[in-house]
TrEMBL record:
Lineage: Bacteria, Pseudomonadati, Bacteroidota, Cytophagia, Cytophagales
Protein name: Large ribosomal subunit protein uL30
Superkingdom of origin organism: Bacteria
Family: Belongs to the universal ribosomal protein uL30 family.
Organism per entry: Lunatimonas lonarensis
Entry-linked NCBIfam families: rpmD_bact
GO biological process: translation
InterPro entries listed in its UniProt record: Ribo_uL30_ferredoxin-like_sf, Ribosomal_uL30_bac-type, Ribosomal_uL30_ferredoxin-like
Location of the Large ribosomal subunit protein uL30-like ferredoxin-like fold domain: 4-54
GO CC terms, sorted: cytosolic large ribosomal subunit
Encoding gene per record: rpmD
Keywords, ordered alphabetically: Ribonucleoprotein, Ribosomal protein
Length: 59
């Protein structure tokens, strides 16, 4: 599987609980934190849900 590099670029303050939980599930939680995750359909759906809070690029 391909890897995707995900970086949090916006805060989760004043966001719904489900978006905060998605950020934590991706391994993020602080601005400018970057993680590499497998590009599975589940992870891509999570990234799509919080796409306004993160920046993605192929690894």
């Amino acid at each position: 599987m391909a890897k995707v590099r995900v970086t949090q670029i916006r805060s989760t303050i004043k966001r719904p609980k489900d978006q905060k939980a998605t950020i934590v599930a991706l391994g993020l939680g602080k601005i400018n934190r970057t993680v590499e995750v497998e590009a599975t359909p589940q992870v891509l759906g999570m990234i799509n849900k919080v796409s306004h809070l993160v920046k993605t690029e192929e690894a």
